[in-house]
Design a protein that fits this description.
Blueprint (H helix, E strand, L loop, with lengths): L1 E7 L4 E7 L4 E9 L7 E6 L2 E6 L5 H12 L13 E6 L10 E3 L2 H9 L8 H14 L5 E4 L10 H4 L5 H7 L8 H15 L5 E6 L5 E6 L2 E5 L23 H8 L3 H10 L2 H6 L5 H9 L3 H25 L4 E5 H6 L1 H8 L11 H5 L5 E2 L8 E4 L4 H23 L1
Parallel strand pairs: 1-6, 6-8, 9-12, 12-14
Antiparallel strand pairs: 1-2, 2-3, 3-4, 4-5, 7-8, 9-10, 10-11, 13-14
Helix pairs in contact: 6-15, 10-11, 11-13
Length: about 400
């Protein structure tokens, strides 16, 4: 069974095609600047590589172009588009709906209800899903929500101290995100150590970042809350923020609420503190040159990570394994070192030589460290492919049983 996994941005479409259940990657590609005549398409199928500059009008056109590449007579890996059993989406926020869902009007309505708390994520996904459902009705569409992995979080760790009518009727609670990445880390650690009873702190650090405490393969606490804007500060998103400062900002600046929220979501985080960039690589270079604001941004980022790591060490009663993943977690020795600095009494001790020379998946803990410390590149797409495959199999089984 071939499953196409889609990762959407407002003007981008990235994909991977998997043969399931073998989990073999058949192809991968991306289309950038959708809606512009300058859109660019890249594809990799086995040893074949290609880059095309061609105007792509919308996400449905992007998928059609993707299918044309995959079924190309000379270089494609499929005979026809009908060999794609489903398109799976690493969807972000379904609010009252979570887990794996066949996309229909109810799912799209539930996602629309959460547009206010996921403004950068839900609207482009909803628009693309509607286009694809209309223009490619022969291909099933399946959403695997990022919140799904965190449904196991105990109620006290998911509850805000708000009037309970808001909790019940508005469904405001700590949902958690980056579920596919944290699920992958939970599965990979269990495979690596051949144990399902481990206490794991998964540090997904990237353009957006979150930590998750995992016990026995399940999420029990996570840093992100009701929206992807919360928790650890992000590249350009504020992270945790006192809502009672909003009236102060509005009164002093004359900005409307929508304008303040837009700035917190797009001009905050590392970018806001540094005034320079939301990219850790840029900030590390600037800090070396003596830029104090860049250094403050990095220090605040590390402080946020350590704050949540402390909570999770208490929640788990210690950590058997600490994992760094995501673009920053996998590539920044400086951030990993700063996060682990002085934690020897808590059982976390880096080997700085290993930490400076990371390549792929490897252990970076010292021999004295009671906790295993690993860098593990994440693979969110393969997790979503597995979830979609399981959903389709379950539907097939139920259909056969009803006959």
């Amino acid at each position: 069974m071939n499953i196409l996994i889609a990762n959407l941005g407002s003007t981008s479409f990235k994909y991977r095609l998997y043969q399931m259940p073998e989990a073999v990657e058949l192809a991968r590609g991306s289309i950038e600047r959708i809606g512009s005549q300058e859109s660019r398409s890249m594809v990799r199928i086995g040893d074949y590589r290609d880059e095309v500059h061609r105007g792509v009008s919308d996400h449905a056109a992007a998928v059609r172009q993707c299918l044309a590449q995959l079924t190309d007579v000379e270089n494609g890996c499929l005979k026809h588009a009908g060999e794609v059993a489903a398109i799976g989406f690493k969807a972000v926020h379904g609010g009252r709906l979570s887990g794996v869902q066949r996309i229909d009007d109810e799912v799209l309505a539930a996602m629309s209800e959460m547009n206010d708390v996921a403004p950068a994520h839900n609207p482009p996904y909803i628009a693309a899903m509607r286009q694809l459902a209309k223009q490619l009705p022969e291909i099933p569409l399946v959403a695997a929500f990022e919140t799904g992995f965190h449904q196991s979080i105990p109620r006290p760790n998911a509850t805000y101290a708000i009037p309970q009518v808001w909790d019940r009727e508005l469904n405001i609670r700590r949902f958690g995100f980056h579920g596919a990445s944290h699920r992958y880390i939970a599965q990979r650690v269990a495979e690596k150590f051949n144990r399902n009873d481990l206490r794991v702190i998964s540090c997904h650090l990237g353009g957006s970042s979150s930590l998750t405490a995992i016990r026995d393969g399940e999420s029990v606490a996570t840093s992100m809350g009701a929206s992807p804007q919360s928790g650890i500060l992000q590249n350009n998103r504020v992270g945790d923020f006192d809502p009672f400062t909003l009236p102060l900002i509005m009164n002093q600046t004359g900005l409307a609420l929508e304008e303040v929220l837009e700035k917190l979501a797009n001009s905050g985080g590392l970018l806001g503190i540094s005034g320079k960039s939301g990219d850790v690589r840029d900030l590390e270079d600037a800090a070396v040159e003596g830029d104090q604001n860049a250094q403050l941004a990095l220090d605040t980022f590390v402080a946020d990570i350590r704050k949540y790591m402390g909570w999770m060490l208490v929640e788990l009663g210690g950590a058997d394994v600490v994992v760094f993943t995501g673009g920053i977690g996998e590539n920044s020795a400086t951030i990993r070192s700063a996060v682990c600095l002085g934690l020897e009494e808590l059982g976390i001790a880096l080997d700085e030589d290993k930490n400076r020379d990371v390549s792929g998946e490897m252990s970076i803990g010292s021999v004295e460290s009671r906790s295993e410390i690993w860098v593990i590149p994440t693979n969110e797409e393969i997790v979503v492919a597995g979830q979609v495959f399981a959903e389709l199999n379950d539907e097939t089984q139920k259909s056969e049983e009803s006959c």
